[in-house]
Amino acid sequence: MQLLIVTGRSGSGKSSALNLLEDAGFYCMDNFPVYFLKDLFDKPDGSSAGPSPQKTSNKKFGISVDVRATEAEIAVLPETLSLLSKQGVSSEVLFLDADTPTLMRRFSETRRKHPLTDSTTDLKAALSMESNILAPLLNIADATINTSSLAPGMLADALEKRFLLDKGDELLLVVESFGFKKGVPMDADFIFDVRCLPNPYWIPELRAYSGQDTEVRDYLAEQDDVKKMIGSISDFITTWIDSFKQGSRSYLTIGIGCTGGRHRSVFVADQVTLRLNEIHSKVMARHRDLDN
């Protein structure tokens, strides 16, 4: 069993860390009561306070513990983790923090309320109080990360390297054909216009077919400009795919448009998908206007 406690000052990125852990296969719970931690890993006998590993197929848990817990709960956490270790549960504590000015700026931008602020305690004082309350957790932390200058993708890299997270090849590439006459797809990250290519629509015997039919495919496959376009789009995405994989996004949509979205864009999208499948494990083609 693996348990990762995520803690730290408010605004330091705990929620983002939990999301990343969830993507890596952890069962994650925010602000989980420390007193119930031991019950979480007990065998199911009707008295368990939470989902035990025996009740789920997941053996990796990520739990956020922060200043919303009582000081008594925070004080008892080291002893609780020691007891869990005797039960065969491997646990680590990750402490996230950031410089006070950075945290104050983040709260200002998001307009969130710090859990310790009230009519007599301003944000700066609350952050100082929070540091004192969480000091016992900082003392037992197995890893500390200062997120002051970290972009979300950099936090993901830090967690992956420190805790050997197996995120897999999670970025899904969607190659979407469409017709400009019906508008550009709103979810497209890149748009490639292939209306400059030879148009089968103007060949009477090909008009009724689509870019997935043999007649149109054979015609377009013989056109030098079509070959160049497929190569150029594929090379561009291939060049930048690693950079996008380093980020926190889950999808990258490549829009390929012609006039009606039935001939050229469909063929080019299918061919680009075939090429990208050679370098990336999750690629799908989608034809928005093919059946419309």
What does the model show?
With 292 residues, the protein is an alpha/beta fold. It has two domains: 2-163, 3-Layer(aba) Sandwich (Rossmann fold), CATH 3.40.50; 172-287, no CATH class. 39% of the residues lie in helices and 18% in strands. The protein is built from nine helices and nine strands. The protein has helices at 14-23, 37-40, 71-86, 100-110, 123-140, 152-163, 214-221, 224-245, 264-276, and strands at residues 2-8, 27-29, 60-64, 90-97, 143-146, 172-179, 190-193, 251-258, 283-287. The strands form two sheets. A five-stranded parallel sheet has the order 2-3-1-4-5, with helices on both faces. The chain has a four-stranded parallel sheet with strand order 7-8-6-9, covered by helices on one side. Helix 2 links the parallel strand 2 (27-29) and strand 3 (60-64). The longest helix is centred in the last third of the chain and has 22 residues, at 224-245. The chain is elongated and about 80 Å long. The chain starts with a strand and ends in a 5-residue tail after the last strand. Mean pLDDT is 86; it is low at 44-56.
Briefly summarize what is shown:
The chain is of the alpha/beta class and 292 residues long. The protein has helices spanning 14-23, 37-40, 71-86, 100-110, 123-140, 152-163, 214-221, 224-245, 264-276; strands spanning 2-8, 27-29, 60-64, 90-97, 143-146, 172-179, 190-193, 251-258, 283-287.
